[in-house]
Amino acid sequence: MESSVRIEQALSAAIDLAKQPGCPPRLYEAMRHAVFPAGARLRPRLCLAVALSCGETDLRIPMTAAVAIELLHCASLVHDDLPCFDDADTRRGRPSVHRAFGEALAVLTGDALIVQAFQVLARMPPTARLGSVLASVSAGVGTPWGIVAGQAWECEPTVDVAQYHRLKTGALFAAATMAGAAAAGVDPGPWRALGDGIGEAFQVADDIRDATSTAEEMGKPAGRDLALDRPSVVRELGLEGAIGRLDRLIGEVGETIPTCPGAAELHNLIRVEARRLLPAKLAQRAA
Description:
Blueprint: H1 3-16, H2 25-35, H3 42-53, H4 60-80, E1 90-91, E2 94-95, H5 97-101, H6 103-122, H7 130-139, H8 147-152, H9 161-168, H10 170-183, H11 192-212, H12 215-218, H13 224-227, H14 233-253, H15 263-276, H16 280-283
Antiparallel strand pairs: 1-2
Helix pairs in contact: 1-2, 1-4, 2-6, 3-4, 3-10, 3-15, 4-6, 4-10, 7-10, 10-11, 11-14
């Protein structure tokens, strides 16, 4: 079965763990709203791709890690959209969680998805790999180098843009590559650089899209970096400079893939996905 279909099924099953007697119905509905319909699912797909590239054929443990990472990503989007941060009315082309369910329930929904991610990991079949997978996933979330720390840099008077991007966006990509390796029984340490590089490239592409796309094209509000005076590669380097940085990053990412059976296929997948993130009118210029 195609990995994207399996990811959707596994995510649905994970959310349905909350559908038990006594769970507030609107909380469950808000959790499903936050996770579905599907976004790009880049992080879980990357986690699975790394596990496969390392030679893993049994995807039960990699899929568990992939689902946990995507739940954490969706939780971060729910919180990121809140009025105290981006104040975004839409996400993936429909009302954001706080617009559909109210701000209070949106805060709780993000919290619930974070906890659900670790409940999923706790249900992983007994294996010696659990500790390494758990360490890889949790490191991408909190402090000092996870997405919480990355978001917190928006609250500081000054910020290094590269560090901000490395934490806010790159941390979960690093968690995806490292957890994929750990789930395959491989040392996750050498895989951090790949995740960091992919995360930085993704954030540069996202900054470009924010500056050049419409809300309809993005499925969420555009122009937020400028409106909220937020760190941005486009604001720092200009559009041409940002496209140039993305091109360099994509070239550098392939050099960080550790030696593994599926290195060539993984490199090609990363290049294709990175180009796909750009608006069509700019993708050719970054080729």
